[in-house]
Every structure is written in structure tokens, then in C-alpha cells.
């Protein structure tokens, strides 16, 4: 390792401040937001250019050392955890926003740009970057690309993949590739850009991206509803969708609201609690849209689907209501939750929830369960909360023993064991519930092409 570090300094322009080996740094950059694995990398390097990234990759190949690419480390599947003496390659120092192409509504950025930084840039240009989630203040675009991050606006704007017009990557072999160069139309065969989106850094490292921006939404209005039954949540979703283009449709349950209220940071939406809550958002720049929304709300009340409801009157009220949904993940993190991030077709959601509910109720009778998610996209976050008197290891073991039943249910509906958080290490043992054996063989063959020595984020997604 010492030889690698000396070569980086002597031959590739690394300054000593771009290399960290102290215990505190190893612990900090060696992990993401998951709590399953202890970090144990050998070194953290902070390249400042694609060429410096390339030099690290070439040396890692030469010496057979694994690289863990590292962004904002807000991941929830241990995709950015380095627990086996890896070189952590942090993109923290590659955080510049480059050229803006107004006619293309496109901007070139480095992979270490923070999601919020890009959102702010877009806003300054009168535009919008629509991929959004609670960790936007620290997640990096490179990491978002690595997991094809989703979030709270997918129902209208899709996942990160939809916004990536081009990528610069260093492959696991050490080649620099420019993929698609920002074009909208380019029918010249395989689009390798899409292989790197969602690859979790297992094929190479994304160093730059060309990102599409969107027209800014107008007069966003938020409604929150309280409901007694889960099927009513789905009725309300399809009722509103039949009339209005929603920009979000989220749900959460009474456990989530109870934990949120205990923090004192969020206001109770209604006088009386209900079992389920839905938050929906839409653009309402014209009266007729608002009239439609109000009419639909009244109809849902009459049908007995909605027990209580509230609507934002301005943007700050809308932001206040969003806290009800956006603060959930961080609020429950103190309970060391065991996380599931599953999805099925929206059409199957009601039946799927019924099945999953019976699996978890009979297998976790003593555990508190928090249900929430992007139910408008068929994506459910199922968080099992650790009882205080149980050790973390015992708790995770117990949860893992139920996983096969949970994922068999996902498989029954042709769903995904990871809707938006990625596979990383925590979902690796369950990949076969979503991907067939022959599909996984193709994935492995692709990995072999881009990263023949398996130095890129080894141990993530699947074992090579
Ligand atoms: O903590 C979770 O399970 C989900 C986190 C995030 O994807 C969210 O939707 O808030
Ligand atoms: Zn989510």
C-alpha cells in the first residue's frame, strides 16, 4: 500500500492532503448509513480529476487491491462500506459544476457534486432538478447514479437514470470512456451509459455526468389525508390520478407519525390519529386544477376513504407538510431499524401488502413495524424497529431469518428486493429473488469485461 501511495504522490500529482490513513478518517469514510458492517479500509484517497482517478484504478489493478468508490455515503444497503482493507476512493474533491448548455437544458458536473448543490444551480437558472429525497443535503450525484436513486418525485419524473444524458467513467480496467456525451439522440448501438447507472461502482467509477434539467414546477400544492384502511390509500391514489398529474404520492402509518410527534419537530396534521396517512402533491397554477382537487377530495370523503384532510395554502405550509414524510427515516434511525425497500407493480400493491402484513405479523409479533414509502410507484419501505432490550446482532439475525418469507412474497408478485436503495451487501444474499440465475450470469460476464481483476467494489451486488 505504501508503494501505491508514494507513486500517487511522486508520479500522479497527489498532495499529502489527498490521502488519509488516520483511524478517524478510516472509520468516517469507510462506511455509509448502514449499521451492519464495521468499516476497515486501508486508506482514503481524494482524487481531483478523472486522470487521478484513473491512476488509482491502474495501481489497484497492478497490486490487486480493491477500490470502494465513495460519495455522500448516505446509502442504506452498505454499497459504500469498505470492511476488507480496501482503498476508499472519495469523490469529495470533485464537486465542481461545469459548463451549462441552456439550449440543451443540460449541465456538466463532477460526480462529487451534492444533490442539493445541483438543485440550487438549476433553480438559479430558472430550471429544476427533480430527483429529490431527504438526504439531498449530503448525497452526491455520483452515488445517486451508482444506485439509480429514486426518492419522492419518481411518480412524475422517474429515477436518476432519466436525468443522465452522459457520463465520464473510469472502467475497472482503467480506461476513460465518454458515454453518450450529453446527446438526446444517439442511435449507435449499445448505450453503455445505462450499464453504469445502478452498477453501484462495480464496473468502474463515474467521475463526471451530463445532467438534464427540467422546467420548474409551478405553485406546488400539498394535501395530507388521514385514512383508516390501506385499500383506501390506493383508492385515493387512483381517484386523484384519474384527474390530476401528481408530482408525488407518499404514504406512512401511525407508527411513523407516533415517532415523528415524539421528536417535537413536526406538527400533528389532524386532531385525531388515523392508521394511515397519504401525502400528495401537484402543480396548481390554474383555478380549474384546484377545483378538480377539491372536488376529488370531497368525493373521497363521501366514499368514506378519507377521514380527515389538510391542504397547503402556500409554499411554506407545503414544506411543513412534507416534513411529515421526509423526517421519517432519520427519526426512526435511533431504533436501529432493519430495512426493507421492496417494490411491485402498483396494480399488485393492495394484495402484496396484505400478504406481507400477514408474514410480518406472524413472524415479528413482538417487534414494532413502521410502514411508509413511495406507494404511488409501488415502492414500500418496511422498517422493523429494534426493541431496546435486544442486541443489534440478535435483532438483525432474527430479521434475516424472516427475510426469505418476505422476499418469497416479493418474488410471488414479480417484484424487487431493492426498489431504490441498491443491493450493496445487505440485499446481496437475496438478489436471486428478483434476478434469475441466467440473468445473474450475464451480469457477472459484464463485470468481467469492465473489471477483469474484480477490483471495483468487490463483494457488492453479487460475489464474483
Ligand atoms: O429509511 C428508509 O427505509 C427509507 C429512506 C428513504 O428512501 C425514504 O424514502 O425516506
Ligand atoms: Zn425512499
From TrEMBL:
Native source organism of the sequence: Psychrobacter raelei
Subunit structure: Homodimer.
Enzyme kind, highest EC tier: oxidoreductase
GO biological process: respiratory electron transport chain
Keyword tags: FAD, Flavoprotein, Metal-binding, Oxidoreductase, Zinc
Pfam families in alphabetical order: FAD-oxidase_C (PF02913), FAD_binding_4 (PF01565)
Entry protein name: D-2-hydroxyglutarate dehydrogenase
Single GO term (MF): (R)-2-hydroxyglutarate dehydrogenase activity
UniProt xrefs under PANTHER family: D-2-HYDROXYGLUTARATE DEHYDROGENASE, MITOCHONDRIAL
Reactions catalysed, as given in the entry: (R)-2-hydroxyglutarate + A = 2-oxoglutarate + AH2
InterPro entries: FAD-bd_oxidored_4_C, FAD-bd_PCMH, FAD-bd_PCMH-like_sf, FAD-bd_PCMH_sub1, FAD-bd_PCMH_sub2, FAD-linked_Oxase-like_C, FAD-oxidored/transferase_4, Oxid_FAD_bind_N
CC cofactor: FAD
Alphabetized Gene3D superfamilies for the sequence: 3.30.465.10, 3.30.70.2190, 3.30.70.2740, Uridine Diphospho-n-acetylenolpyruvylglucosamine Reductase, domain 2 (3.30.43.10), Vanillyl-alcohol Oxidase, Chain A, domain 4 (1.10.45.10)
E.C. numbers: 1.1.99.39
Transmembrane segments: none
Domain FAD-binding PCMH-type: 37-216
